C-alpha cells in the first residue's frame, strides 16, 4: 500500500553519478512510458567526480570509452573531474533529465514486500532532515562501490604525536595550503600518481611513499587518429564511435597479452618507465611490482608528468613500510626519517556494499554476501533489483550502458509477460556449483577487494553466475542473454 505522502514510481535510480545519469537517459530513451526518479545523497550530480576535489583530479581512462556511447566526447582522451561533470551536465540538460533528479536525498533503508511486489525506501533529506518515503517497482542501484563520505586510512602508530596535518584525498579540505611545504604522499595508485604532479611545482618537496610499486604507462594525452579525423571534419558522432572501437581493440590486445605473455608486457611497461627516468634510476626498487600486469589497475601517466617531477628532483620515491609517525613526519622500517608539514594518505577507499542502505526482504535482513550474483548485476533472492558494477580493465561506463540496455529489455519483457516480479534463482543444474568469491584473486586483486571482498555476493563458475570482467565477451553476451533460461524467475 502506498501511504499518505509517499511517492510511487515504476523505477527508482539510486545515485546521480555516471551510472545513474546514464540509467536515467536510457530509461527515457528506451522505456519512455516508465515513471522514474533519481535519488542522490550529494548536492549535485557527478558522484566520484563531485566527491573528489584534490588537485589534479582526472580520469584514468580515456573519455571515448568512459563517456557514454550516445554522447560524443570532443576533448582530449584524459579529462579533469570538472570536464567530466560538464559533460554529464550537458547530458542532463539535453535530455531534460533534471526534473527527475532529487539531490540531498539519502536512502537509509529499502524494504521489499512480496505481498505488494514493491520496494519501500526510507529517505532523509540531508539539507532539512525531513524523512520521506518512496515506493517503486524496480530498484536500479547506481550507487557505485565505495563510501563517499570517507576514504580508507590504515592505522599507523604515532599519528597522535604528529604535529603536521594528515589529509585524505577523498575529503580534501578547502583551506589546505601546500605551497612551499614539505609533503609526503602515501600510496602508489592512480590517485597518488595524479596528485603528486599537480602539487609538486608548488611544494618545497614531495616524497611519494609506497609500500610496493605499481605499473605505470605514460603517453601523450592525445589520440592521433581522433586528431586526424577532426582535421578532416568528420562528424563528432563518427569520431566517437571510431575512437571507441580503436581504444577497445588496443585495450583488448593488451589485456590478452597480460594473460598470454605477462613477462613480455611487464618488460614493455618497465622499459617505458626507464625511457622517462634514465638508465641509472632504480626502477627495480620503485617501479617493479610483485604482481603480473593487470592484476591491479595500470595507472596512466598523461604526458609522463609524474616522471618529469622525479627527473627534476621535485619528487622523491620512497619504497618502504611505515614504522611510525613521529612529531615531524614518518620513520620508515629501514630507518629513514621523512620530515613533512603535510601527509596525504592516498590509501584508497572503503568498499561500500549497496550504498550503506539497510536492506530487508519480506522482514528478513539481507546479507548481500549470502547471495549469488546473476551476471554481476542481479542477486539470488533479491527481487526487482540491479546493481551497476563496471569493469576493472575497461571503462566503467561501457558496462553502465550495457546494463542499461539489459534493464530496459528486462522491464519490457516483464510487461509483455504481464508479471511484476523477477528474481534470480539457481536452477536445478546449478545446485552443485561451487560458490566462489566475487572476484578471483588470481585474476584481479586490488587492496580494497582483498580487505572487504567477503562483503560481496558469491559467484559461480558459469558466465550466468558471475561478473566476468570481460567487456569483449559481454558486449555480445549481455544483449543476447536469454531472459527465459531459468535463471530469472518471474511472478
Ligand atoms: C578517484 C577515482 C578515479 C576513478 N577513475 C576512473 C576512471 O578513470 N575510469 C574508470 O573506469 N573508473 C574510474 N573510477 C571508478 C569510478 O568510481 C567509476 O568509474 C564511476 O565513476 C562510478 O560511477 P557510478 O555512478 O557507478 O558511482 P559513483 O561515482 O560512486 O556515484 C554514486 C552516487 O550514488 C550516490 N549514493 C550512494 N549511496 C547513496 C544512498 N544511500 N542514497 C542516495 N545516493 C547515494 C553517491 O552520493 C554518488 O553520487 C575512479 C574512481 C575513483 C575513486
SSE blueprint and pairings:
Blueprint: E1 7-14, H1 18-30, E2 36-39, H2 48-51, H3 63-66, H4 81-94, E3 101-102, E4 105-113, E5 118-125, E6 131-141, E7 146-151, E8 165-167, E9 182-186, H5 190-200, E10 205-210, E11 216-219, H6 224-231, H7 236-260, H8 262-277, H9 283-287, E12 299-302, H10 305-311, E13 315-319, E14 322-325, E15 329-332, E16 337-339, E17 342-345, E18 349-351, E19 358-361, E20 364-365, E21 373-374, E22 378-379, E23 385-387, H11 396-417, E24 422-424, H12 447-452, H13 471-480, E25 488-490
Bound molecules: flavin-adenine dinucleotide.
Flavin-adenine dinucleotide is lined by residues 14-20, 39-42, 47-48, 52, 59-61, 66, 106-107, 142-144, 148, 191, 349, 355-357, 388, 390, 395-396.
Describe the model.
This protein has 491 residues and is α/β, with parallel strands linked by helices. It has 2 domains: 6-148 and 350-490, FAD/NAD(P)-binding domain (3-Layer(bba) Sandwich); 165-345, no CATH class. Helix content is 30%, strand content 23%. It contains 13 helices and 25 strands. It has helices spanning 18-30, 48-51, 63-66, 81-94, 190-200, 224-231, 236-260, 262-277, 283-287, 305-311, 396-417, 447-452, 471-480, and strands at residues 7-14, 36-39, 101-102, 105-113, 118-125, 131-141, 146-151, 165-167, 182-186, 205-210, 216-219, 299-302, 315-319, 322-325, 329-332, 337-339, 342-345, 349-351, 358-361, 364-365, 373-374, 378-379, 385-387, 422-424, 488-490. The strands form 7 sheets. Strands 1, 2, 3, 4, 5, 6, 19, 20 and 23 form a 9-stranded mixed sheet that branches. A 5-stranded parallel sheet has the order 8-17-9-10-13. A 3-stranded antiparallel sheet has the order 14-15-16, with no helix packed on it. β4 (105-113) and β5 form a beta hairpin. α5 (190-200) crosses α10 (305-311) and α11 runs parallel beside α13 (471-480). The longest helix is centred in the middle third of the chain and has 25 residues, at 236-260. The protein starts with 6 loop residues before the first strand and ends with a strand. The mean pLDDT is 95. The site of flavin-adenine dinucleotide has 33 residues, from α1 and β4. Residues 14-20, 39-42, 47-48, 52, 59-61, 66, 106-107, 142-144, 148, 191, 349, 355-357, 388, 390, 395-396 line the site of flavin-adenine dinucleotide.
Amino acid at each position: 500500500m502506498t501511504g499518505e505522502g509517499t511517492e510511487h514510481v515504476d523505477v527508482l535510480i539510486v545515485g546521480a553519478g555516471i551510472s545513474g545519469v546514464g540509467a536515467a537517459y536510457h530509461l527515457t530513451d528506451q522505456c519512455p512510458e516508465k515513471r522514474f526518479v533519481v535519488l542522490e545523497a550529494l548536492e549535485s550530480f557527478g558522484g566520484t567526480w563531485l566527491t573528489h576535489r584534490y588537485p589534479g583530479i582526472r580520469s584514468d581512462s580515456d573519455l571515448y570509452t568512459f563517456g557514454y556511447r550516445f554522447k560524443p566526447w570532443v576533448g582530449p582522451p584524459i579529462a579533469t573531474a570538472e570536464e567530466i561533470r560538464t559533460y554529464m551536465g550537458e547530458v542532463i540538460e539535453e535530455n531534460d533529465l533534471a526534473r527527475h533528479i532529487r539531490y540531498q536525498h539519502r536512502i537509509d533503508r529499502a524494504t521489499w514486500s512480496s505481498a505488494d511486489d514493491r520496494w519501500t525506501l526510507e529517505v532523509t533529506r540531508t539539507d532539512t532532515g525531513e524523512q520521506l518515503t518512496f515506493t517503486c517497482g524496480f530498484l536500479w542501484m547506481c550507487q557505485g562501490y565505495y563510501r563517499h563520505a570517507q576514504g580508507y586510512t590504515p592505522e599507523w602508530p604515532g599519528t597522535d604525536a604528529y604535529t603536521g596535518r594528515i589529509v585524505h584525498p577523498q575529503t580534501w579540505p578547502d583551506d589546505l595550503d601546500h605551497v612551499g611545504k614539505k609533503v609526503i604522499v602515501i600510496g602508489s595508485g592512480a590517485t597518488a600518481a595524479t596528485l603528486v604532479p599537480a602539487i609538486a611545482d608548488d611544494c618545497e618537496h614531495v616524497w611519494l611513499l609506497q609500500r610496493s610499486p605499481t605499473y605505470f604507462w605514460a603517453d601523450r594525452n592525445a589520440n592521433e587518429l581522433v586528431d586526424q579525423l577532426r582535421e578532416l571534419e568528420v562528424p563528432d558522432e563518427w569520431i566517437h564511435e571510431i575512437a571507441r572501437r580503436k581504444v577497445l581493440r588496443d585495450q583488448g590486445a593488451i589485456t590478452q597479452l597480460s594473460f598470454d605473455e605477462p613477462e613480455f608486457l611487464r618488460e614493455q611497461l618497465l622499459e617505458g618507465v626507464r625511457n622517462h627516468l634514465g638508465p641509472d634510476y632504480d626502477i627495480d626498487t620503485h617501479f617493479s611490482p610483485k604482481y603480473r600486469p593487470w592484476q591491479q589497475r595500470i595507472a596512466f601517466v598523461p604526458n609522463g608528468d609524474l616522471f618529469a617531477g622525479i627527473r627534476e628532483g621535485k619528487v622523491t620515491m620512497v619504497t618502504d613500510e611505515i614504522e611510525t609517525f613521529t612529531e615531524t613526519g614518518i620513520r620508515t622500517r629501514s630507518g629513514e626519517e621523512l620530515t613533512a608539514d603535510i601527509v596525504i594518505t592516498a590509501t584508497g577507499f572503503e568498499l561500500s556494499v549497496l550504498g550503506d542502505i539497510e536492506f530487508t526482504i519480506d522482514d528478513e535482513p539481507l546479507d548481500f554476501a549470502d547471495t549469488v550474483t546473476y551476471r554481476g548485476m542481479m542477486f539470488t533472492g533479491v527481487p526487482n533489483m540491479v546493481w551497476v558494477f563496471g569493469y576493472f580493465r575497461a571503462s566503467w561506463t561501457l558496462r553502465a550502458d550495457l546494463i542499461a540496455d539489459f534493464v530496459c529489455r528486462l522491464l519490457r519483457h516483464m510487461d509483455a509477460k504481464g508479471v511484476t516480479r523477477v528474481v534470480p534463482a539457481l536452477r536445478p543444474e546449478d545446485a552443485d556449483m561451487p560458490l566462489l568469491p566475487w572476484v578471483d584473486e588470481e585474476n584481479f586483486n586490488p587492496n580494497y577487494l582483498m580487505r572487504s571482498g567477503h562483503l560481496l555476493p558469491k559467484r559461480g563458475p558459469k558466465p550466468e553466475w558471475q561478473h566476468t570482467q570481460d567487456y569483449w565477451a559481454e558486449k555480445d553476451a549481455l544483449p543476447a542473454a536469454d531472459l527465459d533460461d531459468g535463471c530469472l524467475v518471474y511472478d
